[in-house]
Amino acid sequence: MTNKIVLGLLAAAAVAAPAAAQNRLPAAVVAVVDTDRIYTECTACRTAVAQLQTQANALQSRQQALAGPIQTEGQAIEAAIQALPQAQRTSPPAALQQRVQRWQQSQQTANQELGRLQQNLQSTQAHVRQQIDARLGPIINQVMTTRGANVAVDVNATLARANGIDVTADVLTALNSQVPSVSVTPLPQQQQPAQQQRPTGR
Questions:
Q1: In whole angstroms, what is the distance from residue 4 CA to residue 2 CA?
Q2: 160-170: pLDDT as tens digits
Q3: In three state form, how does the secondary structure of the chain look?
Q4: d(CA 59, CA 174)
Q5: Spatial distance between the Cα atoms of 32 and 29, rounded to a whole number of angstroms
Q6: How far apart are CA 133 and CA 179, in angstroms?
Q7: pLDDT tens digit sequence for 82-127
Q8: Are the C-beta atoms of 168 and 155 separated by less than 8 Å?
Q9: Tell me: the pLDDT tens digits for 122-153?
Q10: DSSP letters of 2-35?
Q11: For residue 7, is pLDDT > 60?
């Protein structure tokens, strides 16, 4: 009887062993990718960065163009107020008050314009990154599989690594081939809220 129990346990163990082996995870084969280098050196990235820099320079030039007249007018208003008798400085003549109001309105208008331009630039930057990221992930998976790895990590997440596991060059080559350029325009969904806020006309 005891022998039958032992034999039964051995048979059950023999059946359970293959099942346990099937559930065991494979050994990790790691590939390393330097994404900082990719975002710096990829063809589409370089072209987009150059265009973004042009837009940033245009924004700075517009800011200076708007600031000059506003600053000059502000100094002129300050001089006009200081030229008034002491008793009138807290309550300037109506014409001067209207001049101050126009100056404040010009400041507000300029800030609104610059805010829109800044938002447009930030949206464009996000759109460029979004397009590259959308293609970079699948390319990394493709290179990882081709090179026989089953895990890919960014080089910045490693403390130490052996030579030969960096696949950045392969990823960069594939990205340049598949994504030679991207659209340097704001995110499409940026315009959706403005469209939803328009009156219906009813």
A1: 5
A2: 888 889 999 99
A3: CHHHHHHHHHHHHHHHHHHHHHHCCCCCCEEEECHHHHHHHCHHHHHHHHHHHHHHHHHHHHHHHHHHHHHHHHHHHHHHHHCCCHHHCCCCCHHHHHHHHHHHHHHHHHHHHHHHHHHHHHHHHHHHHHHHHHHHHHHHHHHHHHCCCCEEEEHHHCCCCCCCCECHHHHHHHHHHHCCCCCCCCCHHHHHHHHHCCCCCC
A4: 34
A5: 10
A6: 11
A7: 998 988 888 889 999 999 999 999 999 999 999 999 999 999 999 9
A8: yes
A9: 999 999 999 999 999 999 999 999 999 889 99
A10: HHHHHHHHHHHHHHHHHHHHHHSPPPP-EEEE-H
A11: no
- Strand 151-154 vs strand 30-33: parallel, antiparallel, or unpaired? parallel
Q: Cα dihedral angle (125, 128, 133, 135), rounded to 10 degrees?
A: 180
Q: Are 139 and 171 contacting, i.e. CB atoms less than 8 angstroms apart?
A: yes
Residue corresponding to tokens 């100094």: 75
Tokens of 165: 């596991």
Query: Rounded to whole angstroms, how far apart are CA atoms 137 and 161?
Result: 22
Q: What is the pTM of this model?
A: 0.73
At 133, the amino acid letter reads D
C-alpha Rg value of the chain to the nearest Å: 33
Cβ burial 113-146 (10 Å sphere, 16+ → b, else e): eeeebeebbebbbebbeebbeeebeebbeebbee
